[in-house]
Amino acid sequence: MATTAGKLARLSATYVAGDILTRGAALLLLPLYTRFLTPEQFGIVGAAEMLKQLLIMLLPLGLTGAVNRFYHQLPDAPARRQTFGAMWLALMIVPALLTLALDLWGRPLFAALFPRTPFDPYLRLALWTAYLQSAFVLLPPALLRAREAARGYIGYNLAFFCLTNGLILWRVAGGGGAGGYLGAQLLASALMAVVAVAVLLPHARPALAWAALAPMLAYSLPLVPHFLGHWGLGLADRAIVERYAGLEQLGLYTLAFQVGAVAQLAVTAGINALLPMFARAARDPAELARLPRAATYYALAAATVVLALALAAQDALRLLTPPAYHAAGPMAVLLIIAAMPLALYYLPMNALAQTEGRTAVIPLLTLAAAAVSLSLTLLLAPRYGAMAAAASTVVGYSALLGLLLLLAWRRRVVAFEYGRIGKIVLALALSLGLGLLALRFGPLANLLLVPPLLLLLPLALTLLGFWRPEERAALRALVARA
């Protein structure tokens, strides 16, 4: 227990610290952005971001999602250089052709998808930003994560964050509006592509090698509909909000999504620490035996993050943004809550994709969950606006979790501690409900109450009989040292 928990804690702490640092800093920049951008302009940014994320999921053909599994399957460094070099060459060529085709002939499609957002300049800037990130920027973090080079991973992402947000702040503060915001993203991606080349060259030799690329495509192509389903769950509802509720509501929802993304990024950072463990468990029985306990601790960490952010979100927005954006607070709470089923979904999904190596069924389940979420948004958005989209996101991720859990339980790839994880979810629900009821003061006073309210979670877990004897002993020792 100590070895597994210690290693997971060290890797998770590094990933979470770096990712939360960047996302937290982005959150602190929101007061500036919301003072220079109106909700309508923020809505344009949200529509362009939706398009960019869609293209980032489609253009790379799912290849970046195969890096972790194949890194641990390939025999040595020369084989990795050849395989990842072939992947990189494909990522430079295929997305370039697709992006050019969309730029030349895709305007009718974009007009149908975003009737209120002009293609030129806004969506065109998002289009080419997506290409640069797909072909260059996103491959180094995937490779660094597979190598468990957590500090390099965080350093790279931190550099990209600082470059992007520095340029955005410069352009937006200078009166560039939504166009300046999106243009800064494109410039930052171009500059970061140069850095990506320097990072990749020692580990990937671009060359045509179909024999090396074919197995990766066989693994990754089924992931494309899976990624598309995630886009449907997390971003596609913006098109519905734009059409039926307008750019102002979309701007509020975009702000709420950025706050909710802090929780999503935190749980993703935690699963990043577990990814190599899932891959190694495919060939190491000892690692497979340690994985269920590590997954439980990951679920507990995710619940703690979700509780803290959900309790603080509304009051933080009231302090940090102008009154025109305060209505985003309840939406942000719902989007933060949605990060918990997302965190738990990662466990059965990686057991199937990384440990068992089966990806064919996963996209069907993801698309089914996305259909549930988008159907609810389409039904409710004309009446309830962006709030319907936030609530539908919670339902969609919960449906996805249920489907993946059923499949993973039937295959029994990893014997997760389902009962203990269920107690974590119940304890989170109780703690969050009581905590939100207790926050009845001004924004600053409420934020000061959040740290002590976090104690509700371990208390609820104690009442539910969650802790094992060795864990209780470890907690007593921790309290004694404190």
Structural class: mainly alpha
Number of helical elements = 21
Span from first to last CA? 22 Å
Q: How would the global form be characterised?
A: globular
Beta-strand segment tally:
0
Oligomer: single chain
- DSSP strand (E) fraction? under 5%
Order of helices and strands: HHHHHHHHHHHHHHHHHHHHH
Alpha-carbon Rg, integer:
22 Å
Unreliable spans are 1-5
Mean pLDDT: 84
Core attributes:
mainly alpha, globular
List the helices and strands and how they pair.
Elements: H1 2-36, H2 39-58, H3 67-73, H4 77-105, H5 107-113, H6 119-137, H7 139-146, H8 150-173, H9 177-200, H10 210-220, H11 223-234, H12 237-280, H13 285-320, H14 328-337, H15 339-356, H16 362-384, H17 386-411, H18 418-438, H19 443-453, H20 456-463, H21 469-481
Helix pairs in contact: 1-8, 1-12, 1-13, 2-6, 2-9, 2-11, 2-12, 3-7, 3-12, 4-6, 4-10, 6-9, 7-8, 8-9, 11-16, 12-13, 12-14, 12-15, 12-16, 12-17, 13-14, 13-15, 13-18, 13-19, 14-17, 15-17, 16-17, 18-20
Quick overview of this protein structure:
Helices cover 84% and strands 0% of the residues. It contains 21 helices and no strands. Helix 6 packs parallel to helix 9.
Task: Walk me through what this model shows.
This protein has 21 helices and no strands. The chain has one domain. With about 475 residues, it is an all-alpha fold. α4 packs across α10, α12 runs parallel beside α17 and α13 packs antiparallel against α15.
